[in-house]
Amino acid sequence: MDFRFTEEQGLLRSGVADFVDREVVPPAAQIDEEGRFPVELFKKAGGLGYFGIRYPEEYGGSGGDNVMFALMCEELARGSMSLAAAVAMQCLMGTNFIYRFGTEEQKQRLLVPAIRGEKMGVIAMTESDAGSDLGAIKTTAVRDGDSYILNGRKMWVTSAALADFFTVAAKTDLEAGFRGIDMFLVERERPGLSVGKDIAKMGVRALGTGELILEDCRIPSENLFGQEATGFRNLQGILGEIRVMMGSLSLGLGRAALGAAVKYAQERIQFERPIAKFQAISHKLADMATELEAARLLVYRAAWLIDQGTPDMKLASMAKLFASEMANRLADNSSRIFASYGFAMEYDVQRYFRDARFLLLGGGTSEILRGIIAYHMGL
Amino acid sequence: MDFNFTPEQELFRQTVREFADRYIRPRIKEMEEGQDVPQDIMQQIAEQGFYGLRYPEEWGGQAGDNVMFAIFAEEMARCTMSVAARAMMQCLMGTDFIHKYGTEEQKREFLIPALKGEKYGTMCMTEPAGGTDLGAMQTVAMRDGDEYVINGQKTWITGAHAVDFFTVAAKTDPEAGFRGIDIFLVEKDRPGVEVGKKIDKSIARASGCYDLFFADVRIPADHLFGGEEGKGFYLLRSILNDIRVHTAALGLGIAQAAYEESLEYTKQRIAFGRPIIKYQAMRHKLAKMLVEIEAARLMIYYAAWRMDQGLSVNIEAATCKYFITEAVLRIVDDATRIFGAYGASTDMNVERYFRDARWLLYGAGTQTIILDIIAAEIEKQ
């Protein structure tokens, strides 16, 4: 056993932490309030090499491991969930299919610039009637000679208005449920592609989330990732990583919520002493610290198992489930400690409280995750 | 990073599990009904060398680390908490002061035989009026020439009836609260030592807890641990984290057992024409159990590993003990729900787990005091 981070992992963490303290924490409240995507910060993160952590050097990446990716997500989420979620999308779901299944030409044209922060890639899976039940999607991809023609409407697409290319889930076989799904590369400039308006939402406000509309959108057949009828399997190849990533984002939010609460409890005077001196408050803080510690170990272990070449879907699902629920309880408790100030826009705690809800959704709802864990227990 | 147990540690886990299943499990009913752990079982644990796990070879120990000891605690409690609690006393609280602070002669006379199972020891801290608030204890040890004279009453003393020597907390300065406490070695055969009644209890029924009385008990001055008065509080603190981590490991063992048996039961029990495992309400209960067990296991072995690295565990020991306690209480509760009415039957282990898990609420510090400790630590950070 050895619970220590490697020197490389430690250096990466302190590097990102530094960036977050200097450049992300100060404008985070304003970014959220304006609800406008922080393009400059996003590009800066690209310039610092964060988008290439998971990719090899030949495409401009740094060949890091999943523990490093987890540490980066955690640190960024401590500052701004809107930025952190965008970076995570760029590093993982938005670019992973090109990396794994794209042609060399696609990699040079899209992956390399994406890793540099010059292009943005996102994934488009959900539809208005197909969330957890992804097999129910109705977007179709019909083969026509050397092309596919895509028709359908995607919902909850991260950065739909800003992205340069999309990894789109569509059905090549409408009758086949999950197994009929395939994944396609659709560049923004393809005729027939349009973007609806962003969804006004309560949390992660600076990260636009919108509708992607595909109307007779024709793409070359090499834009199909892998063979036909392999989309679901290929998606499953990164589901574990997505869950660990969501767990890491949860750790960052949990730390921010706890840190704010500890500081406030030591400063706030009631009945002539800091409220941290009351057990009702200090025990809440102790509860929070305990849950955070447990979540941390689950997330890092799940990340480490991926790096060992022994990914564990059960553990990754547990890490996501536990950490996201933890983040929500911590945000809740933190806002209780702040009392009225907990919903004053002047303080960050209300933002943590709102942003935490996002963690319950992406990467599988808690309800779905429990089913997956049970399945992997052989039930 | 390396989250894996070594092959050696895995093998050791297997050894303890097989030992417990073979020698202890068949005797559980007898022990629960008799409310005691028979001495031959304590002896069998000795023959495996388990009492010496934490101690160096020069005293007959195995020189194992804290990760191994946590594995031992977990596997013993997976079988039965009562025996595990008694074994922990012998391995840790009952012998640790002699090892750390005893004279060479005391080690030869008590520690070496204890590791062989020829002598037994236990720890005596709690009093009727001094549990969590240890500083309120009233037992006194007054110096008289080359001796100390001990007077007072202790309670909740594990295995008092079956041991040969006690590690006793008593005040050398009755006015001084915590700081007035010192720790003494008291042999059971000293005149004035009297074991009182056994406490009839619902938790860990066979562990055997007793009242203990000291009436003008005279011990030589070298039986004061630490060489001088006023150090007891510090000596005590040096072992508290060990106790917390390994108590947490006991809780993990109960949680694991409750989970395994619930899983098995849901596969066999048929309701509305199919095994109840097919119902989401059951599957998700089991999934929740496993999530908490995985998290707790990581916390406990992380803390044990940190101890082995010589790193501070003030916060890790407290958080893992707090976490597993709340988790195991939820897990045994859900287990009895899964078993339905059978969960209340003494033919089923889960009813025992349901009772025994509550031991975690008190052993190694109540949850409220543990939260105070965690809060104090995070305020320091």
Topology, pairings included?
The complex is a heterodimer of chains A (379) and B (381).
Chain A: H1 7-34, H2 39-47, H3 66-79, H4 81-91, H5 96-101, H6 104-116, E1 121-124, E2 140-144, E3 147-158, E4 165-171, E5 181-187, E6 193-195, E7 209-220, H7 231-267, E8 269-270, E9 273-274, H8 279-307, H9 313-338, H10 349-359, H11 366-376
Parallel strand pairs in A: 1-4
Antiparallel strand pairs in A: 2-3, 3-7, 4-5, 6-7, 8-9
Helix pairs in contact in A: 1-3, 3-4, 3-7, 7-8, 7-9, 7-10, 8-9, 9-10, 9-11
Chain B: H1 7-24, H2 28-34, H3 39-47, H4 66-79, H5 81-93, H6 96-101, H7 104-116, E1 121-124, E2 140-144, E3 147-158, E4 165-171, E5 181-187, E6 193-198, E7 209-220, H8 232-268, E8 270-271, E9 274-275, H9 280-308, H10 314-339, H11 349-356, H12 367-380
Parallel strand pairs in B: 1-4
Antiparallel strand pairs in B: 2-3, 3-7, 4-5, 6-7, 8-9
Protein model, in words:
The complex is a heterodimer of chains A (379) and B (381). In chain A, α3 (66-79) packs antiparallel against α4 and α7 packs antiparallel against α8. Chain A is α+β, with helices and mostly antiparallel strands. Chain A has helices spanning 7-34, 39-47, 66-79, 81-91, 96-101, 104-116, 231-267, 279-307, 313-338, 349-359, 366-376; strands spanning 121-124, 140-144, 147-158, 165-171, 181-187, 193-195, 209-220, 269-270, 273-274. In chain A, a hairpin with a 2-residue loop joins β8 (269-270) and β9 (273-274). Chain A is built from eleven helices and nine strands. Chain B has helices at 7-24, 28-34, 39-47, 66-79, 81-93, 96-101, 104-116, 232-268, 280-308, 314-339, 349-356, 367-380; strands at 121-124, 140-144, 147-158, 165-171, 181-187, 193-198, 209-220, 270-271, 274-275. In chain B, the strands form three sheets. In chain B, strands 2-3-7-6 form a four-stranded antiparallel beta sheet, with helices on one face. In chain B, strands 1-4-5 form a three-stranded mixed beta sheet. The longest helix of chain B has 37 residues, at 232-268. The radius of gyration of chain B is 21 Å and the shape is globular. The relative contact order of chain B is 0.11. Chain A binds chain B through residues 1-6, 9, 67, 258, 262, 266, 276, 279, 282-283, 285-287, 289-291, 293-295, 297-298, 300-301, 304-305, 314-315, 318, 321-322, 370-371, 373-374, 377, 379, and chain B through 1-6, 9, 67, 263, 266, 277, 280, 283-284, 286-288, 290-291, 294-296, 298-299, 301-302, 305-306, 315-316, 318-320, 322-323, 368, 370-379, 381.
